[in-house]
Write a structure and sequence with these properties.
Helices cover 24% and strands 23% of the residues. The chain is of the alpha/beta class and 245 residues long. It folds into two domains: 111 residues, Tetrapyrrole methylase, N-terminal domain (Cobalt-precorrin-4 Transmethylase, domain 1), CATH 3.40.1010; 122 residues, Tetrapyrrole methylase, C-terminal domain (Methyltransferase, Cobalt-precorrin-4 Transmethylase, Domain 2). The strands form three sheets. The chain has a five-stranded parallel β-sheet, with helices on both faces. A five-stranded mixed β-sheet has the order 8-9-12-10-11. The relative contact order is 0.16. The structure holds S-adenosyl-L-homocysteine. The site of S-adenosyl-L-homocysteine has 23 residues, from α4 and β12.
């Protein structure tokens, strides 16, 4: 029986892979990977390593999570070193916990290898610090996926009246609903918002707007994309470094 390494692949830029993740990728007998994990990482694998793609596209899962769990389990019965490579960090909307529970219940050993999460690194490449002294003392990372469910959304919008930076993952297609909700709870229409598409890759694009304008400006950006809401967005002008020509 093998061991499964539930491994964060980082946000896109291959150089943001951890040393530990790279070592495991090089040792792996099989790598089970996602759409969001940079596929160039697979070039680091040893000869004969098997590759299994279990990609998901936003809400359109090509493989249901239950099946992914089973694929990982079956590979752990066959191979000694199984690397389950996931975009960003396995625990940040990565369902790494579910995969660990499934394996644990079947007697399979596992380890988690943290990855650099897009939630912090993508704003960083856009020159937007998630906290900044004198501007905000905290940040939240929220799923935007939920926002479509207007009447039964589990997002406690009322709690978001504070000036925390809010980072929405999986939210681009609900950006209009998110912006409306935030204005409904009292944020001004000119409150700053950024959308960052394909962050940390050569295709990175940041669009800056306000709660009122951002939907029109950013709705057609390619995914993956995340949304940053808060006064820290204004620092982009001074701190933008990666997208500069
Ligand atoms: N576990 C991942 C997040 C998975 S949820 C992590 O820690 O990064 C998937 C969402 O992450 C996407 O819908 C998008 O909002 C965001 N995301 C991932 N990679 C991104 C990138 N390179 N640029 C912008 N957003 C990204």
């Amino acid at each position: 029986m093998g061991k499964v390494y539930l491994t964060g692949a980082g946000p896109g830029d291959i150089d943001l892979l951890t040393v530990k993740a790279l070592r495991l990728v090089r040792e792996a007998d099989v790598i089970i990977y996602d759409r969001l994990a940079n596929a160039d990482i697979l070039n680091e694998a040893k000869d004969g390593c098997e590759f299994v793609y279990v990609g998901k596209k936003d809400s359109h899962h090509t493989l249901p999570q239950e099946e992914i769990n089973e694929v990982i389990y079956q590979n752990a019965l066959k191979y000694e070193t199984v690397v389950r490579l996931k975009g960003g960090d396995p625990f940040v909307f990565g369902r790494g916990g579910e995969e660990g529970i499934y394996l644990g219940e079947r007697g399979i050993k596992f380890e988690f290898i943290p990855g650099i999460t897009s939630a912090i690194a993508v704003p960083e490449y856009a020159g937007i610090p998630v906290t900044h002294r004198g501007i905000t003392v905290s940040f939240r990372v929220v799923t935007g996926h939920e926002a479509s469910n207007k009447s039964r959304s589990q997002i406690p919008w009322e709690n978001y009246k504070t000036d925390d930076t809010i980072i929405f993952l999986m939210g681009l297609h609900r950006l209009n609903v998110i912006a409306d909700k935030l204005m409904e709870i009292g944020k001004p229409a000119d409150y700053p918002v950024a959308v960052i598409s394909r962050g940390t890759t050569k295709d990175e694009k940041t669009v800056i707007g306000t709660l009122e304008t951002i939907w029109e400006k950013a709705r057609d950006l390619p995914t993956p994309a995340l949304i940053v809401v808060g006064e820290v967005v204004k620092l982009h002008d001074q701190l933008n470094w990666f997208e500069k020509p």
